[in-house]
Amino acid sequence: MAAIPPSLVPTKRCSCCDARHPLSAFGRNCQTKDGLHYYCKVCAAKKQKQWARANPATVKRMRGDYLTRMKAQNAQRDPYE
Q: What is the structure's pLDDT at 3?
């Protein structure tokens, strides 16, 4: 099977870095018309890290909430099954 030439690969423009990327560079988002995020995965990761650095108390609380939920969920499981 022949590879698709780069000029025919469907692309989308990232609203953050303003570059065109193949559709596989975008995460899924069912709330958008095309089903993909506005930002490419690289820009989304940068924005997430930036937000986490700016909101350390929120990140700590969210991690604590997650661990509490997981401990409660796993408390009923038998580790030897």
A: 67
